[in-house]
Amino acid sequence: MRNYIKPLLLSLPFVHYGAAAPPFTPSGGLGTNSTPPKYVPMSDFDFQSLNLALNQEWIELDLFHNGLARFSSEEFEAAGITPEDQFLIQKMADQEVGHATMLSNILQGAGAKPCNYTYPFNTVREFVDFSQKLTRWGEAGVYGFIEHLDSRAAASLLVQSITVEARQQLIFRQFEGLFPTPESFETGLTQSMAWTLLAPYLTSCPEENPRIEWQNFPGLNVTNAYPLDNSSVAALSTNRTALSVPGQNITLAWEAPGKTVGYDGKYTTNTTAGPPLVNYLTFPLYSLVDLEYLVCRLDFTIEYHFHPS
After folding, report:
1. How many CA atoms lie within 13 A of 76 on its CB side?
2. Which of 56, 150, 194, 205 suits a disulfide with 115, CB 3.0-4.6 Å?
3. What's the pLDDT tens digit per position in 99-111?
4. In a domain? residue 80
5. Residue in 62, 188, 60, 192 with CA at minimum distance from that of residue 135
6. At CA 44, angle to CA 41 and CA 48, rounded to 5?
7. Could you tell me the superkingdom of the organism this chain comes from (predicted)?
8. Is residue 1 situated within a structural domain?
9. Helix or strand or coil: residue 293?
10. Which helix (H) or strand (E) segment is 202 a member of?
11. Do 254 and 190 belong to one domain?
């Protein structure tokens, strides 16, 4: 077949049609002309946002490698994670190499380098649970700032990487036996919210790493935690019953500001919200769980009341 096609292709006449007219494009839009994109930060806001995202990518890369190295294949299989699943985790680590490289290149080598990390798990199941949480706030953190970047070119690359991270988060939920997509809309977090969640797990970083300028909020803790059923096994989808019951109260309490967090003792939690103006504040809350109302007290505790119906 190739011997017949080659002479035929060589015998085709060359026809020059000149410059092709561009396809029709409706009026409006940004970046639709022929100006080449510039994949660099256009402001300090861009740099600080993308550097925070880079720190997130580095810990995800380290986390996936850490879990695979810490636990044996037999331990993974006992938790329902097959050898093929373990290879998928390795593939997700490879994806993080690409994400970290992309952000490092955008930041032109001035972004963060990998740090040393502390992880809150001792079993395969705890590793999977922490991985699905870490990828969740990593995803949410990008959604919160991506529309505000001055560099639209950088944002276009970042959205291509964060869609992969969203898939990773779904996979870890399936590994844990959780319902994979419980929401209709994903929540976006501000940079300070994302940094508050990330900072406790960074223990030390290279001296040349640029300071992360976002705020660290005081922690918000559940003070009357109820034991949760954590017996589900890895599955594509599991129709689990609700984690709360009608009439159940959950009490939350803020930590006092001034706590040292983050790497090398360089960061401190603080708040600019000011003191509360009333002793009790009750208002409706629309959430993914069935809440009727909540009460915010002067002592910085919050009481959730679940709808009885």
Report:
1. 18
2. 205
3. 999 999 999 999 9
4. yes
5. 60
6. 85
7. Eukaryota
8. no
9. strand
10. strand 202-204
11. no
